[in-house]
Amino acid sequence: xxxxxxxxxxxxxxxxxxxxxxxxxxxxxxxxxxxxxxxxxxxxxxxxxxxxxxxxxxxxxxxxxxxxxxxxxxxxxxxxxxxxxxxxxxxxxxxxxxxxxxxxxxxxxxxxxxxxxxxxxxxxxxxxxxxxxxxxxxxxxxxxxxxxxxxxxxxxxxxxxxxxxxxxxxxxxxxxxxxxxxxxxxxxxxxxxxxxxxxxxxxxxxxxxx
Length: 210
Prior knowledge:
Order of helices and strands: HEHEEHHEHHEEEE
CATH architecture of the largest domain: 2-Layer Sandwich
Keywords: Ribonucleoprotein, Ribosomal protein, RNA-binding, rRNA-binding
Strand content: 25-35%
Low-confidence stretches: none
Domain KH type-2: 39-107
CATH topology of the largest domain: GMP Synthetase, Chain A, domain 3
Function: Binds the lower part of the 30S subunit head. Binds mRNA in the 70S ribosome, positioning it for translation.
Protein name: Small ribosomal subunit protein uS3
């Protein structure tokens, strides 16, 4: 059987870095890890339409710093920063700790694997043909200078009774070469006939790192 490994975790310490930065002793480690998970789940739920591919968490003492990467900063910040202040207050109340929130804009959303997968998933939810959605995403990404892209979707495609997997690739995706700049994203489309998983692999130029 094929042994699957997350392409981002596979490249840690070679091409990628962790999405959290903190140190904890044995007693606190599991508590901090669970807290990071809860923060990310809370923010993803709150910022569903804001195109958020990455949430970076940093800790210093009791203070938590959260950096939200988003392709639509206006949706997160709101008019005169009102939505951002509300988000900070809600997050602090949810986890019971002082939280600093920073916003980082993603300049090229079509070169971020998670956002490409999310765009395909949104089109599937709007009942657009899966082949057309994949083809459009591949064309847009390659036009912006990606070296290669592969998109794979699995589930009851087109409402079929039997679930299946379809994929399309363009350019080069050398997944065994650890020094290559490979970005990976996964999300799910919630359709009337069930969930459809969407995976995206991008081979980018060395400088295109989120």
